[in-house]
Amino acid sequence: MQLERVVAKDIRSAFDEVKERFGEDVLVVSNQKLGRSVELIVAVDIAVNSAANEPAPQKPAVMGGLVGQVAFEDALKKVADRVGTHPWNVTAGGDNPNADDAFDAQRLRELTTLIKGEFAALRQEFHLAKRLSDQYGKPHETSVLMDELYASGFPLALGHLLEHEIGAASDLGQGLDQLQTLLTQSLAVSQPVQLRGVHWVLGTAGSGKSSMAARLVHSAVDEFGEDAVVLVSFCDRKGGAWSQTQLSAAGAGVAAYRAQTAENLQALLEALSGMDCIVIDTGTQFDPEDLAQMCERAKQDTVHCVVAADVSEYAARHQMAACPLAVDTVCVSRMDGGTLPWPLTAALIDSQLPVSGYSDGVPVRSGMTQCTASQWVAHLVAQFAQSLEAKLMQASARQRGENSVLVDTLAC
Predict the structure, then answer these.
(1) Is residue 205 located within the same domain as residue 250?
(2) What's the domain range around 146?
(3) Which of these, 43, 38, 179, lies nearest to 118 by C-alpha position?
(4) How far is CA 364 from CA 114, 208, 213, 250, 287, in A?
(5) Mapping DSSP to helix (H, G, I), strand (E, B) and coil, where does residue 129 land?
(6) Residues 184 and 377: beta-carbon distance below 8 Å
(7) How far is C-alpha 213 from the geometric centre of its chain's CA atoms?
(8) What are the φ/ψ torsions at residue 305 (nearest 5 degrees)?
(9) How far apart are the C-alpha atoms of 342 and 209, rounded to whole Å?
(10) Dihedral over Cα of 328, 333, 335, 341: its sign
(11) d(Cα 216, Cα 344) in Å, to the nearest integer?
């Protein structure tokens, strides 16, 4: 596939040009306003353009130098072949030399599924935007607030549901209050995490799961003290995972334990039953027997699913639905880069899973910021209002500068 840029006077004209040039089987990568015009970036199959453009000569792959291009699934197959027919057959004890390969192969499979799902979700978004454009018969008029929300990554479907009530607001302040009220009412009711007891922390590779487990440990230490809290690593066979667990525990001043089977974990939990808080940092690979015992054990515990703030709506839905245990709360990581997790919020509304905490860039030793649904939405709306205020101030300053130049020109 390759990216193509289309600029038109409005969104309907842009869609019409995309359809005329590339057909309907395209993916909208991004859309934004350029002055009074609209820019669409779309991904199209190279074959679509082959009739209009001469194909560029392909350079042969150079062994030992530049690596030739290979299909993603071909690369996946090579890794799977390399680790064997059963790459998950990793021994329970010690660091197995095949563990990294098994983890990489699983991660590649997850990414393949995720990429295919993302493309399908982009197609749906494109068709939804087209249907809305066809329904109104002209570029849909929206308020300044809705325009800025869409520009900040607000999902089109969720925006369309809220647009009527938010767009009717008389000013930006009232519109922001209405946005906060509607989102709070749509999310599942939640409460801050009760730290006493056993806490399972699950999430996909790279979601910030281990960091969130460390934050939970620090929050528990502040409440119960170092001697009443432990951190357990369970079935995390990724290279270096156990070392990271030990460092996290040392940073909080608590003991660290390791269990590679559900049976060993059960014995460990019985031995640690006198502790006020036990945080279990889980891996991503579980044997069927272990998983069955985990599900039975976790019914009496608290299960946290960690999702990164910068994931797409599809990825958030997929990660929460794929969690191997019944989720009690969602903890949001990586809230420290000015990210506005509107897509994640839409997924939370759809799943009705309660959000109970997040990490917002403060050091891990500061713990997890616990929240209710209303506090979570208030935090997001405040972030958005701050960025919107800065943007409006910049626009106002630029307008004053242009007026000043015009006055000087006329004076001359």
Answers:
(1) yes
(2) 142-181
(3) 43
(4) 29, 11, 10, 13, 31
(5) helix
(6) yes
(7) 18
(8) -105, 120
(9) 20
(10) negative
(11) 21
Report the CATH number that the domain containing residue 109 is assigned in CATH: 3.30.70
Beta bridge partners of 305: 202, 330
Q: Residue 212 gets which letter from DSSP? A: H
> Structure tokens of 154?
């607000």
Asked if 118 contacts 111 with a C-beta cutoff of 8 angstroms, the reply is: no
Number of other CB atoms surrounding residue 240 within 10 Å: 11
Judge whether 84 lies within some domain.
Answer: no
The one-letter amino acid code at 98 reads N
Whether 279 is in a domain gets the answer yes
Could you say which DSSP state residue 95 is in?
-
E strand or H helix that includes residue 258: strand 255-259
Whats the size of the chain, residue-wise? Answer: 412
Determine the Cα–Cα distance for residues 339 and 152; give it in Å rounded to an integer.
9
Cβ–Cβ < 8 Å for 123, 27: yes
DSSP code per residue over 355-397: EEEE--SS-GGG--EE--HHHHHHHHHHHHHHHHHHHHHHHHH
254 and 368 share a domain?
yes
- pLDDT tens for the 412 residues of the chain, in order: 566 778 888 877 888 888 888 877 677 766 777 667 777 777 776 554 544 444 444 444 333 333 334 454 555 555 555 544 443 333 334 445 455 555 555 656 666 666 666 666 666 666 556 665 555 444 444 577 888 888 888 888 888 888 777 867 778 888 899 999 999 999 999 888 889 999 999 998 888 899 999 999 999 999 999 999 999 999 887 777 888 899 999 999 999 999 988 899 999 999 999 999 999 999 877 878 888 888 888 888 999 999 999 888 888 888 898 888 999 999 999 887 677 899 999 999 999 999 999 988 778 888 999 999 999 999 999 989 988 888 878 777 777 666 665 555 655 5
d(CA 159, CA 31): 15
Among residues 410, 317, 304, the alpha carbon closest in space to that of 354 is found at: 304
**For tokens 């903890």, what's the residue?**
331
CATH number of the domain that residue 253 is part of: 3.40.50.300
Query: Where does 207-286 have alpha helices with state H?
Result: 209-224, 241-252, 262-271
